[in-house]
Amino acid sequence: MNRRKFLSLAGASVVVVAGTTYLLSDRQHFVRDDIKGNNNNKLPLKPDEKEILYLASLAPSGHNTQPWIVKYLEPYHWIISNDKTKWLPAVDPTQRETILSIGAFIQNLEYAAAILGYSCEFSLLALNNQDEDIIEAKLKKTTNKVSFDTKAIKLRRTVRSGYMKEPLKKEHVAFLTGHDKDYFHFFSNNSKEYCWLNEQTIEANRQQTFRDAAQSELADWMRLSSKEAKKYCDGLTTASMEINGMPGWVVRNFYSKKDVMGKKFREQGLDKVKEQVGSSGGWLLITSKDNSASTLIETGKRLQRMLLKTREKSIAIHPMTQILEEAEYRNELNQSIGISNTVQFILRAGYVKNYPDPVSLRRPVERFVKIQ
Ligand SMILES: Cc1cc2nc3c(=O)[nH]c(=O)nc-3n(C[C@H](O)[C@H](O)[C@H](O)COP(=O)(O)O)c2cc1C
To answer: For residue 237, how many other CB atoms are within 10 A of its CB?
Structure first.
């Protein structure tokens, strides 16, 4: 065989092997629409109950851990509980974010119940963030019609890229923050507070990504392959992290926790943060008067009420919580931005041209309802 023939045959083999690898590989993101419930008929859930709990579960949560369990006492009578196996000790050692996320879940639940014709009676059970039982919920049929649109709950999502630099219009900030305006602070992208939050978000991210406990916890919640995504239906996927195209394919097929712990991955993540922070219309902060469990639930509900209004104004929101999670940066926050109340959320906000559909995963209802 002459050299030219050998090279062309060798080249063809590489193409065949590469082509086969590609065909056998995980070529697409696994997204929310790909999840099929397991229709566990052993659960006594009525169709309305299942729909309400599904809509409630579309709430956001840190690392998409979905830290809620619903203890089913009898039809329309549940206890919303804290799932300790979903805590994030490295970035949320006091379970502040866990309770905020459960608050968002409760707000969705209340709206979803209202859409289906039920009013909710809630009784607070938790005395602190670590208590297992958070709230008792009793739903009663009501004749009061609510014109809230299910679509707002189904289409809400965290958006991380594609932000325009145009500051949010005053009337849009007012629309989003509505009756809760005393708890919101908006810093437009021409303010000095905005610059401080940008710089410190990058620095807090740098600190966090090189803190092994935090990076390892993050890696544990990354569902790098579609197989893992399908199995767990939670965490952060290539789709939800917006790692698209060829880079997404490479991550899904060839990356492991070891890569996430590597210097290159951490630095690339940091570059992404710099890019994100460099483009927004401003920062929206949510504060509270104290840190009690009931206040955190209220604050989570407040977050969710605001988020459900964002899409209709083409406003994207991206929680970036690292300043709050890294003590050194958190301790400087209030004084630097001139706010006396406790900051519970730091949200990057901006207009986007094309609002993407939600992709983050949710565990089917059957997996978070426990019959008592
Ligand atoms: C308390 C809390 C903290 C969060 N912190 C961050 C964060 O620091 N960075 C980030 O990219 N997303 C953050 N998120 C967004 C979640 O990752 C997101 O809600 C989750 O992955 C589900 O995706 P979805 O909001 O599109 O449904 C946070 C959400 C909550 C409720």
So the answer is: 30
Q: How many Cα atoms within 13 Å fall on the side-chain side of residue 265?
A: 19
Atom of ligand 1 nearest to the CA of 59: 27
Q: Is the CB of 64 under 6 A from ligand 1?
A: yes
Q: How far apart are CA 180 and CA 305, in angstroms?
A: 9
* Domains with residue ranges and CATH for the chain: 34-156+359-371 (3.40.109.10), 170-351 (3.40.109.10)
Q: Is the CB of 62 within 6 Å of ligand 1?
A: yes
Give the span between the Cα atoms of 44 and 5, in whole angstroms. 69
**Residue whose CB lies within 8 A of the most ligand 1 atoms, among 54, 55, 63, for a mutation test:** 63
Contacts of 216 (CB under 8 A, 6+ apart): 90, 257, 261
* Maximum CA extent, the chain: 86
Q: Residue range 31-53: average pLDDT?
A: 86
What pLDDT, in 10s, does the model give residues 157-189? 999 999 999 999 999 999 999 889 999 999 999
215 Cβ neighbours under 8 A, 6+ residues apart? 208, 209, 260, 261, 266
